[in-house]
User: What shape does this take?
Amino acid sequence: MAIRSVRYMGDPLLSARAQEVSHFPSAALTELVGDMKDTMAALNGAGLAAPQIGVPLRIVIFGVQANPRYPEVAGVPDTVLVNPVVEAIGDDEEEGWEGCLSVPGMRGLVPRYQRIRYRGFDLEGTPIMREAEGFHARVVQHECDHLDGILYPLRIRDLRFFGYESVLFPEGMEASDR
Assistant: This one.
């Protein structure tokens, strides 16, 4: 497997809707997901969408155990999700600080649904359906937004709460309210 270059905000691919995966399992998808995992791990990410490494397919990966970029959050199970669908459970939202490998060095206060249901498939084509809340729900919504060409700054309601990590959190991210 390999670590791939991450595309940055402004790249036209990150503003486009990704294509459905029509055939799986396949060796090509397995290799792609392996590269996504290596890339996410190398950059201490909580998740990664295929378009972020230049592949316009509806595939996301996510998972958090112990991550220096998110030191105080509950764990999120390691998941590969192909052709995901996300729906809110209720209307309750909460704002939380988000960052993104495609928007390096910056953070923004982003509203997300507190509880969601998501479904899709694993790499073998086995259906996945889960409910999530809190940080888990936030990560899934953030990554699935990438598949529709939405980066988190587009969701920020008040741009006073968007900026460089070093300016917003001079004491480090551990000192921030997540």
In short: The chain has a mean pLDDT of 93. The chain is about 20% helix and 35% strand. The longest strand covers residues 76-88. The CA atoms of residues 123 and 154 lie 30 Å apart.
